[in-house]
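User: Continuing from earlier, I have the next pair ready.

Assistant: Great, send them over.

User: Here they are, in order.

Assistant: Folding the first of the pair now:
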Amino acid sequence: MDLSTVRTFVAVADAGRFQEAAADLAITQQAVSKRIAALERHLGVRLFTRTPRGAELTIDGQAFLPHARELLRVADRAVASVRAGSRPLRVDVLASRSAQSGLMRDFHRAHPEIELDVVTLFDIDAAIAAIRSGTIDATFRAVGTPGRPLPEDIESIRVLDEPLDLLTGPAHELASARSVTPARLAGHRIWMPGLVPGTEWAAYYDDLAAEFGLTIEATGPNFGSDALLDTIADTPALATFIGGRTRLIWPAGHGLRRIPVVDPTPVYPHSLLWHRDNPHPALAALRAHLAATTPAPGAAGTWVPGWANPR
């Protein structure tokens, strides 16, 4: 059903005259007559009777009027639901405790007036599909992995290089170190059960291990960060990597050590991805906030895989 004819019908019903409805709609009286005639043909009934006093609703017109008003209300709500700035900005992050989530918390503090909807998708393929379908507005991912170019309609910018820390239990050989180099980690078992082959984060750690001769194990089920911390605390032979901006809380009795990795410092390259045709005004505000508040990636003394895209 053509909503313009429905809107014209309601205008005539409210005004009581075709001429006044035409003035309200800023169209000609002839256009009003044609729209009403088209609607009557579509419905198969007469909606108005012309009288010396104007246009009066027929019995069918009276029956149709409340439904016509509801049709217009639904149409207006549908348009408002997608009008730029009228819905929350939906952004994907890897995990609730990740640096990406921290970036969104900082953005929310800086712009409390912007509604946010933060979600968690599995990998870059799922995130890109969600961007292209309009399910989300943006995602934070490491991009540039070999053989996985971004689609032409997806824009990206590297927004944060997150340094890696080594996490050990109190009995680990390196527990008392103030910092460690990647070379010193060769021969130590680094356990990361959350690595999933084929994901962008697995590609990052594969390259890190190859570059510095590290032993990174992803064996065993991933029961989450709490179970990982329990195992690291109780197993002197195991350590793990965590992002320097990842928020973790562990029991005081664990005695875990968080040790910076330096010379060079491996950094995880977080990029923001979005669809180039996305008109949401808050998306521009998010990009501006990240550009103004995060250090420029590519600092001296850091390491990223060669495929990581520049800012």
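And the other member of the pair:
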Amino acid sequence: PSGLPWTAVQRSIQKNILLQASNNPSTIEELSIELGIALPYMEEEVTLLHNATLLEKQGDKYITNFFILDRDCRMEIYHALRSTAQERSTLLREFMEDKLADIRALGIAGSHIDDNAIRFWLVPDLIDYLIKSTTKGTNIYDPPKRANGETWGFVGYEMADLGEEIMMGHNGCGKWPDMFWSYKYGQILWDQCGEPSYEEVMLLCDAIHKKRSVTSFSDVEKGVWKGIDGRYAHASDDGHVVPDVLVITKENHNRIHQLFREHENYEKLAKNVTEAYEKLESIFKKYSHQVLHNNLGYNIRMELCAMRMMAYHDLVLNGFLKMPEDPQKTSLGMHIMFG
């Protein structure tokens, strides 16, 4: 509600202070000298950053109160995760080969939606489930509470050439518990066919729930339908709305995860992810001041999400996942979750 943390880091001086004080407790005088900023101005800036909870005060010194991962830290984290990525990818592939027919039988995809679309969704979903179920710490969707009572996460990164893209987005839109989610697979599949608006999601969910025909739409709904038709759904010959993305109920989502837990590969995957968490925990402690250690779990889990794209790269490379002919027109990774 306050606009934090972004409102506190709009200017270079604020960013430079946070960089200088990262893992480096400093007095206002020391910050003034190091950054070449007059003391009165420095006092004002430090006060603003302290009130924004981005600087923590320790006696007469201030220290940055969120992780800024430098290049060496990022490289060490990347190599720790990459060293066991191929094992994760192979185990996930074996599970999907064994159980995809059972998963499809749950009715999460129409007959016109191929197995590749289910796999594209399953890869990050199963990794998210592993991170949530087998590691300690705070879920990335439930970040730690700040000193001012607000709840948000924040992290900084130094640029580093990691050798492959590891960022995957996961955007949601709708009215809980009915949500339209989009996994965004790096730059190649970041936009796909474009994400739906709130109005489009609401109409699509309502049409699927009530098995509506396009002939039942009001004039306003017909206008909204134009943005849906051919992207996330289409009308059948008799006019009923047919989703072109996966539609997954909470019950079916739980059933998929049950199939996953019961599979012979699950314990191996759980061990792989747990050990990765422990490796990252030691790396984070190595590169961070004690003041940051209370919220280690949140940041470690955030970095574990790179496992999604690593598996995606591996499975595209070995042909298990097929890239769409026209990435800008595909809805791969998009899905509806009904609570």
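Worth noting for the second one:
The chain is about 45% helix and 15% strand. The mean pLDDT is 96.
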